[in-house]
Specification:
It is a single chain. This protein is mainly beta. It has one domain: Maltoporin, Chain A. It has helices at 2-14, 391-395; strands spanning 26-39, 72-84, 89-100, 112-123, 131-137, 142-144, 149-152, 157-167, 170-185, 188-205, 208-219, 222-223, 230-231, 234-246, 251-262, 285-296, 301-313, 319-332, 337-349, 353-366, 376-386, 406-417. The strands form three sheets. The protein has an 18-stranded antiparallel barrel. β12 and β13 form a beta hairpin. The longest helix is centred in the first third of the chain and has 13 residues, at 2-14. The radius of gyration is 23 Å and the shape is globular. The protein starts with a helix and ends with a strand. Its main location: membrane. It is a multi-pass membrane protein. Keywords: Cell outer membrane, Ion transport, Membrane, Porin, Transmembrane, Transmembrane beta strand, Transport. Belongs to the porin LamB (TC 1.B.3) family. It is found in: Cell outer membrane.
């Protein structure tokens, strides 16, 4: 039923006689990947994750993801430009995201399609050159591409904000954001409110710019309407900075350092707002360091490189750590035929040391010679290794390898931006 509503909504934009705008006033963009793979036993592809990498919820990051993506994924965004002149821009934007496992043609029982963006933005409509937006938005900045990891300023959710404010040679954006749970309390549904400030593109030199990010979040005191459990007040904050180095117009290097505490220690909207007596979330701390490089070495070679480190400190001063280093070199055999490799190693220290290392080889056909060139059609072979301490965690997502310390897969994949 949810997918039917999505289809009806999108068809209403384009149905004859129903359009309020000409097609020339609409732009589209998005991302997609799809493919198939076989594991080394001959069954369906299984993927290997170092759980806890880059966050202690779910499977963690898909580090060194080339050849280690077991689902098909699509993001499709439509931007409707109501007014677009040199001085004014008014638009609404909608984005859907679909993820499915590729087992059959329709995926009716397993696919997930959701609206992930629906917001409107106005700029130039007042005497001030500011922009204003309200709705649900991917409110995020930088990512590590080879890990599919939005690590800086990723506060996706519902809210509103003001941007394009001149300050200290950069542009300031302010936002009010919320994430609400399903838990009903005496004050309504419990959730987290975040006040976000980010100052972008402070230009220090012609080749160095700086971003600064500050955020404060809180969850109110309340009582569960059904169980009468009392929830404590919870607070937290984030402070971070990112330096953007221009590498002679052949690439970039991003160096970021962030600190988060309390309900904001995960650097996003998804902290725990249901804190009971004795929970010491307010004393939890996380320090994150990222260095991300993309560089065209010469007409034949280019690469992505990422170094990530995170240290999490529990309320009892127990420490957990994550360290990750990965690279994706690309060799251009011709303009459109490339040889890719990807190699990386990840270490999570949490009640022991869990390691995972991966090596992938992937020849591909590309639309051009750029390392960002898309679409691409690629074949791949990937092999992962892990230590005994990581055996049970890896097996949660790759049960065929539950008694193994290595595994792999081979297959085909397309990837595109549009």
């Amino acid at each position: 039923m949810k997918n039917l509503w999505v289809a009806l909504l999108f068809s209403s934009f384009f149905a004859p006689g129903a359009r309020a705008m000409d097609m020339k006033d609409v732009t589209t963009f998005g991302y997609a990947r799809a493919g198939t793979g076989t594991n080394t036993f001959g069954g369906d592809q299984e993927c290997f994750y170092n759980q806890g990498a880059g966050g202690w919820g779910g499977i963690g990051r898909n580090e060194f993801r080339l050849g280690n993506e077991c689902t098909n994924y699509l993001e499709l965004a439509l931007t409707f430009h109501h007014v677009k002149t040199e001085s004014q821009h008014v638009f609404t934007q909608f984005r859907i995201a679909n993820s499915h496992n590729g087992d059959d043609a329709t995926e009716s029982s397993t696919q997930s399609t959701n609206f992930v963006e629906a917001f409107a933005e106005m700029s130039g409509v007042t005497e001030m050159p500011w922009s204003f937006w309200v709705g649900k938005r991917f409110y995020r900045d930088q990512d590590v591409f080879i890990d599919d990891y939005y690590y800086f300023g990723s506060m996706n959710g519902n809210g509103g904000g003001i941007g394009n404010i001149d300050l200290l040679g950069g542009k300031l954006s302010l936002a009010y954001l919320k994430r609400v749970t399903d838990t009903r309390t005496n004050i309504g549904k419990q959730g987290i409110t975040v006040y976000d400030a980010r100052l972008k593109n402070i230009e220090h030199t012609s080749w160095l710019k700086q971003n600064v990010w500050l955020a404060f979040g809180h969850a109110p005191e309340s009582t569960n309407s059904t169980t009468k459990v009392h929830y404590e007040k919870s607070r937290g904050f984030v402070v971070g900075t990112l330096f953007d180095f221009n590498l002679n117009d052949k690439g970039f290097n991003h160096f970021a350092l962030m600190y988060g505490q309390g309900v904001m220690n995960n650097f996003n909207l998804y902290g725990d707002s249901l804190i009971t007596a004795g929970n010491m979330q307010s004393k939890q701390k996380r320090l994150r360091f990222i260095n991300h490089t993309t560089f065209d070495v010469n007409e034949k070679w280019a690469f992505h490189l990422a170094l990530s480190h995170e240290r999490f400190i529990e309320q009892d001063n127990t420490k957990e750590q994550w360290l990750s280093l990965g690279a994706r070199p690309m060799y251009r055999v011709t303009k459109n035929f490339h040889l890719l490799t990807e190699v990386g190693s990840s270490i999570v220290q949490s009640g022991g040391t869990r390691r995972l290392t991966r090596l992938t080889f992937a020849p591909q056909l590309s639309v051009n010679e750029n390392i960002w060139g898309r679409p691409v059609l690629r074949a791949f072979y990937t092999h992962s290794f892990w230590n005994k301490a990581n055996q049970s965690k890896v097996a949660e997502n790759a049960p065929t390898y539950s008694n193994k310390l290595a595994g792999g897969s081979y297959g085909l994949q397309m990837e595109t931006f549009f």
